[in-house]
Amino acid sequence: MTLALGPGPGGTIRFAVHVQPRASRSEVLGRHGDALKVRLQAPPVDGAANDALVELLAGALGLARREVRLVSGQTARRKVVEVPETVQARVMALASG
């Protein structure tokens, strides 16, 4: 199954992320169905896991934090993230493990 990438507004792409909070370390694991699976050390309290997700993805994709936006799923394990479409190949590389 491939990672679901969709167009966003203004030259961006959106993709699903499956988050596992309170992990022993923060890391991108590859695919989880049609989503990118990410483990986060941060707990899902007061937006800590969301902040950690944005920071981890920004670092992994070589982007500034402001370029990674959480579109939906603020309180869910499955989230939708928006990034510039110029990093689509990097997103696919992360998904392949």
Account of the 3D structure:
With 97 residues, this protein is of the alpha+beta class. It has one domain (5-95): YggU-like (Conserved Hypothetical Protein Mth637, Chain: A). It is built from two helices and six strands. It has helices at residues 48-61, 88-95, and strands spanning 5-8, 12-20, 27-32, 35-39, 69-72, 78-84. Strands 1, 2, 3, 4, 5 and 6 form a six-stranded mixed beta sheet that branches. A hairpin with a 3-residue loop joins strand 1 and strand 2. The protein is globular and about 30 Å long. 22% of the residues are buried.
Summarize the structure in short.
By secondary structure, this protein is of the alpha+beta class. It contains two helices and six strands, in the order E-E-E-E-H-E-E-H. It has one domain: Conserved Hypothetical Protein Mth637, Chain: A.
Mean pLDDT: 93
Give the helix/strand class. alpha+beta
Largest sheet, in brief, is:
6 strands, mixed
Number of domains: 1
Please report the total strand number as a whole number.
6
What is the CATH architecture assignment? 2-Layer Sandwich
* SSE arrangement, N to C: EEEEHEEH
Instruction: State which percent range the strand residues make up.
Output: 35-45%
Assembly of the depicted chains: single chain
* Spatial shape: globular
Q: CATH superfamily assignment?
A: YggU-like
In the CATH hierarchy, the third-tier topology is known as Conserved Hypothetical Protein Mth637, Chain: A
Unreliable residue stretches: none
